[in-house]
């Protein structure tokens, strides 16, 4: 059983009350539609024999059934969205949490367009399929009632109706395999079309600067044309298949109506029964469309579930993992013979070192020597191939996520922010506005923030806010300080700060180390001089490991 199948069963179980309600009201809704034609047939039959009082009584009853039908339609829509909304929330939660729990290596398999299409389009297709399937299954069950009706009035009509239905099923079974393949091609073409759209948005400066609009536009036209071709091929094919089957059904309907008229002429059938035959064949056509959309829906849902499975299959899942007991961690870090990255060309090659708590430690070395790989592993962004990593002598895999990510935090050289104001970005990690201002004042960035037009209410991602890169990095450091994790890590960001802000940060960290573990990646002499321990990397290995500001 793959991951998405298991998760789908769990979601369906959680939605079972809504599924039951939807099933009950759907039976009422569709059942009344089957009863109404029979009632109108009886009305006509009574009128034919001039039993007008019975016709009027039947009309009154039919009006009651009609009102029941419209009430059922309204309730059916309400119960549909009760189910749809709950299921959509559960699948969205699954998709987002799975994405977060993927390693960075696994995430790299996705383009942003593919991720967007999974989150928006595929989840909608999956949820709509399960929500719609309830009433579609009931409509398929209607065939049994229609078959039984034809069996009770004439065995020949029953045989013809069953033969038409079997022909429909055969045609659908053969042709919908191709529909599934065409739909998969359409989705792949849509991913590529969306990718080129993102590319144009992200590289508009380069397009203008190098004046390559014509060549870029050719690529846009190509991807758009490929999508339109795949989209039109799928829909044209589906429409042609439907029309072929409709012709088969219509020939059967008119043949049976002619046969019914013959039976009426010899006194073996009532005229009202002929009206019911005509109406029930209309329902067969309608229900064929339902079967057609169900089978194509199955193909669509299979494709979408497969794409969602790609998102969740490599997530880290610790549901059966035995975690260590909760404890207060001091923040000591230990690497033992860690191999990480491509085994033939590793980022960390048999790396071992110890970082004690209540210290400032600096990892240094040339570009590409593996320094950032240490932080990626400590943040559980990727998985190591072998070796061990400990926090206070506890294997870090055995620390549950809530405890672990409250214990450790990281600020990178090029930080990202949420689409919120400066204040909201800082308060998102914890603390109140008073604490936010206090940290910003200590860092020396409070006045610069206040000089912005909207101060702390400035949208940090707005192109019109004119926030300098130095200030953005200062805000990112304020954010990690406000989180106040036991272990705080800096990935070369302190190197990039202007002189005054850099000194303010180092002074704060020197004060914080009395109850924190500070880990910095840097090659700046000013920062190295603040270190209690310096770990030098070269060629993806630890080359030097010196205590108390001794750098070789």
Describe the structure.
- The chain has 552 residues and is of the alpha/beta class.
- It has 2 domains: 3-312, Up-down Bundle (ABC transporter transmembrane region fold), CATH 1.20.1560; 333-547, P-loop containing nucleotide triphosphate hydrolases (Rossmann fold).
- It is 65% helix and 11% strand.
- The chain has helices at residues 3-14, 16-48, 52-101, 104-107, 112-153, 155-202, 204-210, 213-265, 271-312, 371-378, 401-407, 422-427, 433-443, 446-450, 469-483, 499-512, 525-528; strands at residues 333-341, 346-355, 360-364, 386-391, 394-395, 408-412, 487-491, 517-521, 533-538, 541-547.
- The strands form 2 sheets. It has a 6-stranded mixed sheet, sandwiched between helices. It has a 4-stranded antiparallel sheet with strand order 2-1-4-5, covered by helices on one side.
- Helix 3 (52-101) runs antiparallel to helix 5 (112-153), helix 5 packs antiparallel against helix 6 and helix 6 (155-202) packs antiparallel against helix 8 (213-265).
- The chain is elongated.
SSE inventory with pairings:
Blueprint: H1 3-14, H2 16-48, H3 52-101, H4 104-107, H5 112-153, H6 155-202, H7 204-210, H8 213-265, H9 271-312, E1 333-341, E2 346-355, E3 360-364, H10 371-378, E4 386-391, E5 394-395, H11 401-407, E6 408-412, H12 422-427, H13 433-443, H14 446-450, H15 469-483, E7 487-491, H16 499-512, E8 517-521, H17 525-528, E9 533-538, E10 541-547
Parallel strand pairs: 3-8, 3-9, 6-7, 7-8
Antiparallel strand pairs: 1-2, 1-4, 4-5, 9-10
Helix pairs in contact: 1-3, 2-3, 2-5, 2-9, 3-5, 5-6, 5-9, 6-8, 6-9, 8-9, 13-15
């Amino acid at each position: 059983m793959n991951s998405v199948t298991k998760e789908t069963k769990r979601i369906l179980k959680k939605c079972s009350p809504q599924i039951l309600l939807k099933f009950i009201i759907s039976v009422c809704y569709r059942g009344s539609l089957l009863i109404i034609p029979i009632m109108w047939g009886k009305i006509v039959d009574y009128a034919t024999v001039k039993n007008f009082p019975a016709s009027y009584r039947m009309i009154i009853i039919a009006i009651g059934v009609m009102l029941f039908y419209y009430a059922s339609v309204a309730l059916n829509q309400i119960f549909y969205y009760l189910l749809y909304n709950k299921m959509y929330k559960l699948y969205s939660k699954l998709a987002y949490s799975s994405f977060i729990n993927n390693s960075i290596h696994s995430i790299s398999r996705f383009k942003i367009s593919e991720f967007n299409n999974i989150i928006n389009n595929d989840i909608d297709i999956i949820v709509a399929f399960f929500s719609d399937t309830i009433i579609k299954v009931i409509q398929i069950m209607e065939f049994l009632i229609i078959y039984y009706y034809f069996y009770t009035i004439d065995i020949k009509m029953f045989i013809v109706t069953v033969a038409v239905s079997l022909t429909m099923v055969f045609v659908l079974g053969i042709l919908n395999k191709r529909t599934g393949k065409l739909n998969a091609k359409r989705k792949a073409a849509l991913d590529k079309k969306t990718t080129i759209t993102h590319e144009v948005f992200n590289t508009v400066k380069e397009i203008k600067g190098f004046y390559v609009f014509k060549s870029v536009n050719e690529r846009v036209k190509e991807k758009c044309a490929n999508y339109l071709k795949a989209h039109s091929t799928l829909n044209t094919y589906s429409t042609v298949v439907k029309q072929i089957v409709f012709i088969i059904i219509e020939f059967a309907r008119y043949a049976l109506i002619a046969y019914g008229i013959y039976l009426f002429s010899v006194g073996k059938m009532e005229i009202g029964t002929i009206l019911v035959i005509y109406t029930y064949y209309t329902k067969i056509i309608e229900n064929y469309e339902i079967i057609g959309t169900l089978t194509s829906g199955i193909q669509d849902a299979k494709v979408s579930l497969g794409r969602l499975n790609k998102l969740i299959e490599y997530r880290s899942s610790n549901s059966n993992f035995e975690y260590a007991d909760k404890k207060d961690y001091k923040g000591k870090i230990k690497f033992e013979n860690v191999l990480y990255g491509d085994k033939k060309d590793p980022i960390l090659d048999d790396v071992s070192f110890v970082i004690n708590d209540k210290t400032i430690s600096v990892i240094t070395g040339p570009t590409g020597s593996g320094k950032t790989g240490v932080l990626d592993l400590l943040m559980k962004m990727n998985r190591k191939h072998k070796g061990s990593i400990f926090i206070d002598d506890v294997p870090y895999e055995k620390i549950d996520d809530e405890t672990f990510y409250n214990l450790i935090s990281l600020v990178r050289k090029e930080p990202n922010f949420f689409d919120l104001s400066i204040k909201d970005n800082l308060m998102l990690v914890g603390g109140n506005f008073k604490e936010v201002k206090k940290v910003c004042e200590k860092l020396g960035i409070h006045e610069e923030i206040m000089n912005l037009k909207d101060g702390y209410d400035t949208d940090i991602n707005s192109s019109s806010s004119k926030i300098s890169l130095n200030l953005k990095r200062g805000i990112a450091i304020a954010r990690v300080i406000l989180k106040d994790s036991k272990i705080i890590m800096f990935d070369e960001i302190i190197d990039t700060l202007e002189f005054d802000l850099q000194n303010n940060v180092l002074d704060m960290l020197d004060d914080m180390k009395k109850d924190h573990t500070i880990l910095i990646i840097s090659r700046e002499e000013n920062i190295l001089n603040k270190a209690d321990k310096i770990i030098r990397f070269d060629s993806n290995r630890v080359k030097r490991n010196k205590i108390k500001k001794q750098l070789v």
